[in-house]
Amino acid sequence: MDTTERRGWSRRDLLRRAGVAGVVATLPAGVAISPAAAALEREQRETFTSTEAATVDAIVARLIPSEGSGAGAAEARVGRYIDLALNGELRSLQGFYSANLAALDEYATSMHGAAFSALPATKQDAVLAALETNMAAGFVPSSSAFFETIREHAIQGMFGDPYYGGNANFAGWDLISYPGIKLHLPAADQRLEATVQPVHKSTYDFAIFRPGGSDHGD
Amino acid sequence: MAIRLKKTDVVIVGLGAAGGIAALPLARAGLDVIGLEAGPWLNVRDFPSDEIRNDIRAWMSRNKFNKELPTHRLNASQTAGPPAIAIPMVNAVGGSSIHYGMESWRLTPFNFKTRSRTVQRYGAGALPPNSTVADWPISYAELEPYYDKVEYEIGVSGRAGNIRGKLDPRGNVLEGPRARAYPNPPLRRTGWTELMADTARRLGWKPYPGPASILSRTYRGQPACEYCGHCTFNGCHVNAKGSTFLNAIPHARKTKKLTVVTLARVTQVVVDRNGRATGVRYVRGSQEYFQPASVVMLGAYLYENVRLMLLSKSAAYPNGLSNNHGQVGKNYISHMYGGVDGVFPGRKLNRFGGPGAQRTSSDMWTDDQFDHTGLGFVGGGILDARMEAKPIGTGRTAPPNGPRWGAEWKEWLHKNANSIGGVGVQMESLPYEDNFLDLDPVAKDQYGQPVLRVTFDLHDQEKKRYEFLQEKSEQWVQEAGAAETWTTFPAFPIAVNSHAYGGARMGNDPETSVVDKWGMSHEVPNLAILGGAVFPTSGNKNPTQTIQALAWRTAKHVAKRFTSIVE
């Protein structure tokens, strides 16, 4: 195993997965790449094997693609959210994920002749549609159950607090015009047609929720 | 070996919405009260605006509630399994009053007399034959003074619509008469709440700002709401919620008569040979204790109250505490929810932020406010247009006739996420013979004790009521300008619910109820039961304030009659 593989997600990999649009191009104007994103090369996976990680990244990149308006799951690092969650709160689902990721590659190979992550996007979409409608065999307890689970986790990773490893650079919140965490919300933000500027804050950017912080927001 | 502690006047099991309130009148009457709470104290720093921690992972339920979830089956011929949906309860001082949606309502005069008022107008045939629907043994007027005490203790924000018969169209003109106004004005109005209020007025639906136990202004030293947008399933980072750990519990402690014991998990109510409760057993750490008490008050949530009764078997009560008439667990009801969302094309609705209790409500389709002839159901539902859209909740949205993932869905979501608005509805649900609670014969909690088993399904009336109210919700959303609308919550039996009722219902007849009109057991003279378990009917409003008014009334009764109750 070479160093690139052990590191997990290299910046080059991320750019490749993001497709022609690329990470930087899909970030909203004026948003700098955060230290977290810059630190990509120093991170490793906690749960998935390299093959599993590649498959999960490929799935979520089709569920929430990078094409079109706003960033997608690749830029928001949704796969990382799932990897971290499976080594924590969702630990009981580790076996569910490994079994079904293996089943997915078997299904993809039998139908289209290659592992899921190696298929072109259109074929990946066809495979996912078969899972969604429960038409694919070999999954536990069913392909639609696996599809619904990973869709829900993809949405959590895309739109949850960046603290959990997804929603990188607030890409998910920008996609839906959620301005970020404000502990005090002015009346103007609740008016019809008001344009609310994003603050790009995690709840853990506030001292009150950090170790040693005060009892008041800042 | 259990350590035997010093006897107290009253021991309360659970210091949440109900037990926390009950402690106050007891302590003020000079009784020595010990409150046993399974969870810890929490404070503002435990309440981050974090949808994953709060809404999805239920952090405040992790140590107890999540590890003893009731099982569910639709009917008695099935084997029960994990519930499809479980709305979690909090284990902490203040209980679920820390994280609830804070919609703080009274029931209406009709809700206390659903059976007799229905039979009177439509005949006995209007009620399903297998429904066990019963009038409450008390009326709205008897509970009104306690609703009033609770509203002023927890600081409810709202606009009165009926003060002693004088109507005010800015408030809910369809509510029962109240003695005085709310202690605080309604929560801040928003573009969305006013769009929906204007629409409802156009429809003639008498809208009003729904009451909330969230402070709209500083009240007795407690600060006002900051509208942060992460209120439901979270505590408040500025202490603006009416949670009992911020009002009744500290006020009771000031009397020096309330002792709070945290991390105390009650395992059994102990009785003597004559069937009187002598106290409770609990575990704290790995040590077992016996807390003797003159009066035992069950203030846990409905599922744990009923489970504790069924687990407390004795020579006097071989089928569980206060269950010699076989009524514990019967007459179970779970609220039913519905809702319609729509896209308002090109509009910025800005529904992010605020508590969900920042809303416009309409009672137009509740109770018997409309003629039910030929509809096939009784009762109705409350409609609310709320704030507090959250990002993950928004991200789950998909249009009914389009894809739920992929490029086309993403484009739709990006375009419309801030243009989605809707109406939520919650509905009366009737009690039936075949909806009940008992102990699961197989599933156990983390300590090896059986969990509760819920046998519950929707009946014909519930499905018809749902369809009717979904049409009304859709009408409101469409009239407000939505181009495309869809159902947000299907007709679905929610087995484990934060709006659960029955299992130890209140009545005059021990053959058909568990507690009397004061909330005292028919069988165990010194056992009081608090919470939704004692409700004979659900009504359509959120239950907490009624639970709290009943808790205050039961506590007052215990204090007043203490000498005769303990003999």
Task: Give a nutshell description of this structure.
The complex is a heterodimer of chains A (218) and B (567). By secondary structure, chain A is mainly α. Chain A is built from eleven helices and no strands.
List keywords for this structure.
heterodimer, A: 218 residues, mainly alpha, 11 helices, 46% helix, globular, B: 567 residues, alpha/beta, eight-stranded mixed β-sheet, six-stranded antiparallel β-sheet, 12 helices, 21 strands
Q: What is the helix tally of chain A?
A: 11
Terminal CA distance of chain A: 46 Å
The overall average pLDDT of chain A, rounded, is: 84
Rg of chain B, nearest Å? 23 Å
List the helices and strands and how they pair.
The complex is a heterodimer of chains A (218) and B (567).
Chain A: H1 3-7, H2 11-17, H3 23-26, H4 35-38, H5 50-63, H6 73-76, H7 78-86, H8 94-112, H9 121-132, H10 143-159, H11 171-175
Chain B: E1 3-4, E2 8-13, H1 17-28, E3 33-36, H2 51-56, E4 71-73, H3 114-122, H4 140-154, E5 162-163, E6 166-167, H5 191-203, E7 208-209, H6 248-254, E8 258-261, E9 265-271, E10 277-284, E11 287-298, H7 302-311, E12 333-334, E13 336-343, E14 359-362, E15 381-386, H8 391-395, H9 406-416, E16 420-427, E17 436-444, E18 450-455, H10 460-479, E19 484-487, E20 500-501, E21 527-529, H11 544-560, H12 562-566
Helix pairs in contact in B: 1-6, 1-11, 4-11
